[in-house]
Amino acid sequence: MLDRDAGRPTSAAGRGLAAGDGTTTLITDLPYGPEAAEVARSAVTLALRGTETDVLADARLIGSELATNAFVSGSPPLVLCVDRRSLTGGGLEIEITVTDGGCCRPAPASPTAPDEQAESGRGLVIVDALADAWSLTTGTHGSRAWCRLTHRPCFSSVGA
């Protein structure tokens, strides 16, 4: 298990888009195949519509990497959950979770960058670089990758 944060992620049950108390949750099944990454990017875009471009780009990349990792290392079914919470005083907290049916390999002790010539293996390194907190738990009956992005708008004051 990898865990950069002691906090526990939360998610809503069911499928679809739910809203309440400043929180919006999107839960969707992902195809078990290479197209899981594109479906995850589209779902993250839907869940985070109206979000600043740079935050959306990071969230889309993370969703894509977690979905790809689940397809390559896990088994069906793949499920994506995107939670979007408005923060008091402005800002946004985003949690992205991808679960799968499980795998035989244990989670790596820490993400390590592959050799420069490698064509894959950078997913968790990317998640580690972009997310404020994340964790990966693997098991034969289910695996779960989760991350949190927190965005607080920068306010500048112009003085005279």
Describe this structure in words.
With 160 residues, this protein is α+β, with helices and mostly antiparallel strands. The protein has a single domain (17-113, 120-151), classed as Histidine kinase-like ATPase, C-terminal domain (Heat Shock Protein 90), CATH 3.30.565.10. The chain is 26% helix and 29% strand. The protein contains 3 helices and 7 strands, in the order βββααββαββ. It has helices at residues 36-47, 53-73, 123-130; strands spanning 2-3, 16-20, 23-30, 78-86, 92-100, 133-137, 143-151. It has a 7-stranded antiparallel sheet, with helices on one face. A hairpin with a 5-residue loop joins β4 (78-86) and β5 (92-100). α1 (36-47) packs antiparallel against α2. The protein starts with a strand and ends in a 9-residue tail after the last strand. The model is unreliable at 1-15 (pLDDT under 50).
Task: Describe what is shown at a glance.
Residues 1-20 are annotated as: Disordered. By secondary structure, this protein is α+β, with helices and mostly antiparallel strands.
Helix content: 25-40%
* CATH topology term: Heat Shock Protein 90
Count of alpha/pi helices: 3
Overall number of domains: 1
Low-confidence stretches: 1-15
Q: SSE string, helix = H, strand = E?
A: EEEHHEEHEE
Distance between the termini: 52 Å
Radius of gyration: 16 Å
CATH architecture: 2-Layer Sandwich
CATH class identity? Alpha Beta
Largest sheet: spatial strand order = 1-6-7-5-4-3-2
Domain Histidine kinase/HSP90-like ATPase: 34-143
Keywords: Kinase, Serine/threonine-protein kinase, Transferase
Region (Disordered): 1-20
Organism: Streptomyces capoamus
